[in-house]
Amino acid sequence: MNHNPRGDSGTRKKAPLYRKVNTTAHRVHHGRGGDFSDDRNARATQLGDSARSPMHGRRQLGLDYTPLFRFLLSKVGTQWDAVYSEARSRLDRPDPIFWLVALQPSQRHRYVRIGESSYYSGMCVDDNGTLQLVDPGMGPSSLVPQCQCCTHTFNGAPFTRRFVDLYTSLEPDGV
Fold first, then answer.
1. In this structure, are residues 43 and 102 in contact, taking their beta carbons and an 8 Å threshold?
2. Alpha carbon distances (Å) from 145 to 42, 119, 142
3. Can you spell out the DSSP letters for 45-105?
4. Which residues does residue 110 pair with via DSSP β-bridges, in sequence order?
5. Residue 136: in which H helix or E strand, if any?
6. What span, in angstroms and rounded, lies between the C-alpha atoms of 19 and 21?
7. Which three-class secondary structure state does DSSP give residue 23?
8. What would the pLDDT profile of 31-81 be if each residue is shown by its tens digit?
9. Burial of 12 (0-12, 13-18, 19+ CB in 10 A)
């Protein structure tokens, strides 16, 4: 007797390449509010129904695409069509794929900054349709942190170079 503990036909759906993060945590601000945020509702009666629509548009908050970036890095050297097809099927929208992957030579970058202190290798599709790194020599020792307070990472690994404050290092001794 063949017993399947999952109760399905043996195939599992792969996990999505993004995750939801806690956006209601203490001190997490998303640029909402402002000087006129309360005035909008007061003016709604004067302006009609068009003023009652939300002002935030299509902005999506609370999604982390780190699993996608790790997936793309693991697929370097593979055929782009297969990589794109799998990534697209496991995402809510295709836009984040092209934050790292450039299809045109003019869009290529050695590295891409995601958020405040996370950097990832820039990727491209070569003439053979293979996913490649724009600069394979880039690594955690290639970049210098921009501030002392954050942990800067490159492809998930912390930077190895230290922060250099140019203003204090340029001051003459004894001042």
1. no
2. 45, 10, 10
3. HHH-GGGGS-SSTT---SEE-HHHHHHHHHTTTSBHHHHHHHHHHTSS-STTHHHHEESSG
4. none
5. none
6. 6
7. coil
8. 555 555 555 555 555 555 555 555 555 555 688 999 999 999 999 999 999
9. exposed
> For the residues of 149-166, what is the DSSP string, one character each?
SS--EETTEEPSSPP--H
- Exposed e or buried b for every residue in 72-96, given b needs 16+ CB within 10 A? bbebeeeebeebbeebeebbeeeeb
Q: Which pTM was predicted?
A: 0.69
Residue 133 pLDDT level (bands cut at 50, 70, 90): very high
Query: What percent of the chain has pLDDT above 90?
Result: 52
Task: Give me the residue spans of the domains in the chain.
Answer: 20-52, 64-158
Identify the DSSP state of 130.
B
What are 158's two structure tokens?
Answer: 């912390």
Provide, rounded to the nearest whole percent, the portion of the chain with pLDDT above 70. Answer: 66
Do residues 87 and 97 touch, judged by C-beta distance below 8 A? Answer: yes
Strand-pair partners of 121: 111
